[in-house]
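Methods: example folding runs. The two proteins below were folded one after another, and each record is reproduced exactly as written to the output file, sequence line first and structure-token line second.
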Amino acid sequence: MPLTMERQVEQRFLWFFEDLLVCDQKGALLFEEPPSKDEMFRLPVAEYLGFHIYLCSLAHLPEGVDEQSLTPLRSLLVEADSERFNLLSRAAQLHTWHRNHQYCSRCGSDRVEHGYDLAAHCQACDYRQYPRISPCIIVLVTKGERCLLAHASHFPEGRYSTLAGFIEAGESAEEAVRREVMEEVGIEIKNIRYWRSQSWPFPHSLMLGYFAEYKSGVLKPDGKEILAADWWSPDQLPDLPPSFAISRQLIDHFVGQSLGQVG
């Protein structure tokens, strides 16, 4: 679905309603105008294709817009390049923040948008709220020529992926990697190596991607978050996450190394 419009102007607007994006009649996501002011919360998002992009977080659908104009974020990310992924991911996280933080978390008063920071300001107690970012680890554990993939309770039937979890208070990312692997599948790991990160808009995560190697223990899924886990060879992989997810990118990198396609 294109993110372009025919006439070039300085500003474009992304309209979000609940967890969906609004498209115009031609299927484009970028609007030339915001909705009416009483239906809009506006935040600057990024520069994209030469435009200044703003998020419009809608309390309800504007007149003339029906549910057929709404598109799930995941379906848009499947074919997104990195620039478009970053734009939509950032906009979605700002939209989630606005929806979930309507009032001051300290005193409960109404808050207004800060004058220059990307933050909400409580005029009653002078507290600032910034968009929530939840740091998570995600790790692909290898054992020789095989990698560890698991089926989580919320996955579609047959879907397997890497292990992941939130970093807890006072914990380093590497400590979280060890803890999550032990908690979810009951094994010890070694040689933990950071690879890359990805902002993940479901709903507001920062995924820190790691590789690690098996050290000891027997696979024992916890039965709550993880229902099944096994070691998989590069030529016999199960159904995997979509290509835009860092989990899939970790797996693809491992497969490429196994085939001698990446260093």
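Second run, written to the same file directly after the first:
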Amino acid sequence: MIRLWQRLTRATQQGPDTDIRTLVRREFGLRVRQRRAYDEALTHSSMLDGDKTGLKSNERLEFLGDVVLDMTMANYLYRAFPEAQEGELTKRKSRIVNRKNLNLLGKNMGLHHLIQAKMRREDIHDSMVGNALEALIGAIYLDHGFKKTQRAVLLMLKHYGLDEQVNETHDFKSQLHQWATKRKKKLAFEVLKDDDAAGEERYEIAAKVNGEVYGIGIGRSKKLAEQEAARRAWKKVYDRRNASGGGQKRSNGDKPQASSGEGRRSRGAGSSRRRRPAKPKSESSNANQGSDKSSAKEGSRSRSGRSRSRRSGGNKPSESSNSAKA
């Protein structure tokens, strides 16, 4: 994602183009045949103030280019993801066909250097550049037809990371909702500003967690502004989780060393205490065994003595009888 962002925001190495022909050839690989349509695509509506020559602004071509771009992306996604449902295809398309992305693409091409407007070059808004890019796609369609325009637009988008963007799976708003629900936090999106300057709506929305602002997003629709606010809020959540996680790891890393040492010492002490009474048990068992053996011996001796006494007692009567007879 970082490499893609760097690719989108890097400046053109050749410097700003001085002619639309060079830009169209380099970015789209096509030649300009009907110059009038391209000049119209670069004309901002501010140029019409006081004009009496019949000059036309790029608003009509912007409408046409928007439809061509939508159709190009819809056809590409429909064929590239045959198993995807309508909701998933819409999400993938919105990652490419959105105001912020088109503004970045136009600026990276250097298109803002070619826009004709009654204002200073540094006062040209990013949205004017994105609109001019759509108008330029409309002019290419009028000049070359849909098939060539579709192929040229896809090549341009792939050069700026189309495949990476459509396969990106991050939905910051959904992730933020899951995080808030899991932690029983209240997530709300509040509209801070609803501007309609220069005939173009512009929303500013804040993502709040338990009343605290976590991120603010700006877009030409509420949906785009909410997604941008959710992205900024999720980045704040991610940074806080990393910070708190690192602190816990350090504190836990200190505690186990002390507790493990104490545990080893306590286990050692406990084992020594258990070993000491173990000896008397063995001695007492040996003593008991010895006493049992001695008692057994004494018993055998007593039995042998009784047997001898019985035998001796049996002889005495015979002797007395013999003496009596004598």
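Comment on the second run: The mean pLDDT is 75.
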